[in-house]
Amino acid sequence: MQVIGLCRFSYPAIGGFQVEHDTLDERIAYLYAPKRLEERFRFFETITLPGIRAQSDPEFTFLIVIGDSLPDIHRQRLDALVADIPQAKVLVYAPGEHRRMMQKAINTHRLASHEPCLQFRLDDDDAVAFTYVEKLRDAARDVAPLLRTYRHVAIDFNQGYIARPGADGIAAMPIQMPYWTPALALMLRPDVRASVMNFSHGKLYKAMPTITLTGEDMMLRGFNGFNDSRLKKTAKPADLTPLTANEELLFQMTYGIDCDHVRRVFSAPV
To answer: Predicted confidence band at 151 (pLDDT cuts at 50, 70, 90)?
Structure first.
């Protein structure tokens, strides 16, 4: 089965944000604000990319969608970060309606096949375990008979961490949360042109069968000052504590995250 992951890297979509802006220019100014963009790059480098780079099953595509207004200096930095990841493809789009543009990005890279397509989304401050693609394919084979009846099935790995990186390392807390975007995927029939981005992740259970897998750390939710959902007034603070030396080793063995690398990157002046 083809596996496609999608990441929006500060793409100025129309819609698709929980924090709204009155105009597209205001959204672009917010997304490209130097302090915010620097934080996103640091998360992307130290949290998101290590697990993608080290996947035990390398047969997947990782699409990174950016806007055509992203300044060249930032595009060059992004290209350098993913230069050693053959699965990564940077796609440049003008601003457009969020779900339509993300569906276009994914469907442009779908292969003609009689097999289902597996799709996941990953924010630029989140991570998956380096075994994610392998375990996703295993789970998809187990539940594939459901596609005889249903057009799509959600496969949700619900265990992992909330983590906040910084100059002192990583503070984190373990979680088991259903339908969070990291490590949540859709398996779609070959003839279905909808994508993982056509559905609200928190309401998937209303649209299709969902399979929840737990007992193994598979996802990591980044926590920072610019989290889209954290900026909502209803967001609750997370109780994060610094990782111990053994927990730092666990993060490296599970997500490929090197806490010394985190400290170096986040200690650099902004």
So the answer is: very high
